[in-house]
Amino acid sequence: MNFDDIQSAWNNDNDNSKVVIPSSVDQLKSLQMPVEKLRKNMQLEFYVQFGSLLLCAFLPKMFYLSPVMIAPFYAMYLVVIAISVHYFYKFYLFYNSLRTNTLSSKDNLYSLYYEAKLNIEMYKAYTYTLFPFALIIAVMFMASDKANKAAIVLEQALVHKGMAIGIAVTFVILILMIMMITESWIKKYYGKYLTQIGQVLDQFKENA
Length: 208
What we know:
Helix content: over 70%
Shape: elongated
Keywords: Membrane, Transmembrane, Transmembrane helix
Number of helices: 7
Distance between the termini: 26 Å
Low-confidence stretches: 15-21
Number of strands: 0
Largest sheet: none
Number of domains: 1
């Protein structure tokens, strides 16, 4: 669908709406470009996440993991895969909806905007859901350390209050860092394009 077709569709849709349509190709492009960027970034995101999940399956081969921890590790891994499959399915549905004909009507554009916001929240939930699993898996590898350094640190923390507080503070800082990185990643690769679409929608309302 080219820009003339899109503008024609918006004109036809205008009969049942008070929202002003884009009056030039430049305005249409201002809508089209963020949508294309969203699709491109989502495609890259999928490859990175899918590749990371595959790589995690080989962690026991790459790093030493106690034989007694192998079964629990892959049990955790299967749970992560199950969660990821559900997320990827929702991810695919939204990605597939981001096509050129997204701009064929105002209703489609409004739907895209709110679906994008919903998917961003789902992305955050997915990231935060995986964090406890990543933490448990990290503990498994630390517990498998032949030098038993993790056990030594834990014993010292039980004896020394200052060390226990230090570990707790480190844990909180780690959580905050993950939250900050997630928010920064979303803002850079998704948020700014969603903001552009929202600004165009606001202009339509102002000109109505």
